[in-house]
Amino acid sequence: MNSPWLIGLDIDGTLVHDDGSLSERVKHEVKRVQALGHKVVIATGRAAANAYPVIKELGLDEGFAVCSNGAVTIELGGARGYHVVEVKTFDPAEILGLLIEKLPNAHFAVEDVDGSYRFNKPFPTYSLGDQNYEADLDTLSHHPVSRVVVLSPDHDVEEFLGIIADIGLQSVSYAIGYTAWLDIAPKGIDKGHGLERLRVQLGIPGDQVLVMGDGRNDIEMFRWAKDLGGYAFAMGQAPDEVKLEATAVTASVDDDGVAQVLGSIEGLQFLD
């Protein structure tokens, strides 16, 4: 190997199946490319505490991970398994006010600097990690946060997309999931932002970047990789708008698309 690649991998729908499992084939390929000297970096919408069990199962015990859609960067190692090295925050008051007005029945949560969540209505089990606390809606905007999460069970994805477009969230970065789920981060912050900081720190050339994901929150990461001359792979089950932003489309998570790409990483240098 001439020099290492930076390999950015999403978790849910990319590494992890709907039932929360990781396939042995995927784990094997992650360990193989890491043994070759490549830098495998998890880039996820999950908070650090919720991402770390997957990181640990993959056997990644050193390096870095980008969490909370780029707002939080952690370094792996130490007694706890990781420590936070960077947190980006913003004042959620104005954005929450706009969203509550348009979506009065939605579920709202904020991610605090310590990685814990405060929420006004229950979220699906485990979606906010282990450290989450119910709070009055009014208290969610009392101090800076690294993320705002909105879940609106009353709407399907298309309805939700329309509502969010009408609100016009210009002062923040945001991404919408498969369901009526909205992640809001500080302006200009996304997975690509977090990975770029690490790429520069590690001294990896831009054309030796490879990222993989399946969601709308991966689009900015895809654009970042392609702008540098690197590669972006969408999972086979990804929405069409995500696939259109990718260099190529691999197999679905159920068919171990990550393992298929990593298994042929040695050939990427020969692609045009």
Helix vs. strand class: alpha/beta
For the biggest sheet, the summary is: 8 strands, mixed
Cα(first) to Cα(last) distance is: 19 Å
Strand portion: 15-25%
Write down the overall mean pLDDT: 88
Given the C-alpha coordinates, what overall shape results? globular
> What is the succession of H and E elements?
EHEHEEEHEEEEHEEHEHEHEH
Number of helices: 8
Helix fraction by DSSP (H/I, runs of at least 4): 25-40%
**Strand order across the largest sheet:** 5-4-3-2-1-12-13-14
Number of strands: 14
Q: Which residues form runs of ≥5 with pLDDT under 50?
A: none
Specify Rg, calculated over alpha carbons: 18 Å
Produce the secondary structure layout.
Blueprint: E1 6-9, H1 24-35, E2 39-43, H2 48-57, E3 64-67, E4 72-76, E5 82-87, H3 93-102, E6 107-111, E7 117-119, E8 132-134, E9 147-151, H4 157-167, E10 172-176, E11 181-186, H5 191-202, E12 209-213, H6 219-227, E13 231-234, H7 240-243, E14 248-249, H8 257-262
Parallel strand pairs: 1-2, 1-12, 2-3, 7-8, 12-13, 13-14
Antiparallel strand pairs: 3-4, 4-5, 6-7, 6-9, 9-11, 10-11
Helix pairs in contact: 5-6
